[in-house]
Amino acid sequence: MSKRDYYEILGVNKNASETEIKKSYRRLAIRFHPDKNPGDKEAESKFKELSEAYAILSDAQKRATYDQFGHAGVNGAGGFSGGGFDFGGTPFEDIFGDIFGDIFGGGSRRGSRGQRGDDLRYNLTISFEEAAFGAEKKLQLPRRQRCDTCSGSGARPGTEAQTCGTCRGAGQVRYQQGFFTMTRSCPDCHGEGKIIADPCPDCRGTGLVKQKRSLSLKIPAGVESGSRLKLTGEGETGTNGGPPGDLYVVISVEEHPIFKREGQDVICEVPISFVQAALGCELEVPTLEGKLTLKVPTGTQSGKVFKLSGKGIVSLQGYGRGDQLVVLRVEVPTKLNSRQRELLEEFAREGGEDIHPLGRGFFDKMKELFD
């Protein structure tokens, strides 16, 4: 049976570029790949045909010969030999790795490529005031750093890592699966390409040792619980010359016995007696920066809010500051002696409904609602 035209097999014209040929082959090869079509002999045959065509047209010299003489000019170059493919000196596994490396893990050599160090997380608890005004904290971080004994090589001083005899330093090995040649990480060196026969006694061959490192951290004013501060390059040391990871400090703010935070505002509830609320008074209230005197007018009701402008939390973005909201809570005495009770009863008789404007309004509305 005469062979089909290679350009026809790949679905491209004779003027197709190398990129177009590769793109078409990738699309069709994935479609007819035996792993996607188990037991389908027709798909397997088409896949072999595609691979043969690609082996010729992806090689500039072989393509030129094919264009001039057709299949006769490349006779044998596109044939099969042994248990694997051999496209005129272009091993099938090289083409396979180039096209399907991202699927099967082949096509790339790991060797002793540098690996980035791990990121670290540090949970830091600070006070309410430190969150409001900012602070500078000293941290003691346990982390893995380069071993000074072996200078990070992992080998005992005076020795060095040896090239892996299994993968010959490639970090990967090839194996046969049916008529495919696959690649995987070398089981002996775990993809490193080298084996440490005599490990460093301090780091046990890892090239890293755990040490404590002191760091100074500047906490900006306005942080909240859950805020994350990133310290670039302060994570664990990379291996084989790779860059270090980063350190993320996660903030947790302690509760305050008096203040509560709501956004950039600070809320403080202050108790006063019903006499102070009725007669009015000057009341000393706490703020984040000390005490202030608040003038309470006559007849102040429980829940009345007074705003102290600019006495709240600084914006984390660096502009503006919130307010402090003072909420007055009128306390009613729970224990009365006979004289106090007598005076309050007299007070009630003298005042009548006029001393309870809120209550009168409420009961008027209730009467309208149910009468």
What does the secondary structure layout of this molecule look like, with pairings?
Blueprint: H1 6-10, H2 18-32, H3 41-57, H4 60-69, E1 80-81, E2 84-87, E3 90-91, H5 92-104, E4 120-126, H6 128-133, E5 135-146, E6 162-163, E7 172-177, E8 180-185, E9 194-195, E10 208-219, E11 228-231, E12 247-253, E13 259-262, E14 265-273, H7 274-279, E15 281-287, E16 290-296, E17 305-308, E18 324-331, H8 338-351, H9 357-370
Parallel strand pairs: 4-12, 14-18
Antiparallel strand pairs: 1-2, 2-3, 5-10, 6-9, 7-8, 11-12, 13-14, 15-16, 17-18
Helix pairs in contact: 2-3
Structure description:
The protein is an alpha+beta fold. It folds into 3 domains: 6-104, DnaJ domain (Helix Hairpins, Orthogonal Bundle), CATH 1.10.287.110; 117-143 and 201-255, HSP40/DNAj peptide-binding domain (Sandwich), CATH 2.60.260; 259-370, HSP40/DNAj peptide-binding domain, CATH 2.60.260.20. Helices cover 27% and strands 28% of the residues. The protein has helices spanning 6-10, 18-32, 41-57, 60-69, 92-104, 128-133, 274-279, 338-351, 357-370; strands at 80-81, 84-87, 90-91, 120-126, 135-146, 162-163, 172-177, 180-185, 194-195, 208-219, 228-231, 247-253, 259-262, 265-273, 281-287, 290-296, 305-308, 324-331. Strands 13-14-18-17 form a 4-stranded mixed beta sheet. A 3-stranded antiparallel beta sheet has the order 1-2-3. The chain has a 3-stranded mixed beta sheet with strand order 4-12-11. Helix 2 packs antiparallel against helix 3 (41-57). The longest helix is centred in the first third of the chain and has 17 residues, at 41-57. It is elongated and about 125 Å long. The relative contact order is 0.10. Residues 77-112 have low confidence and may be disordered.
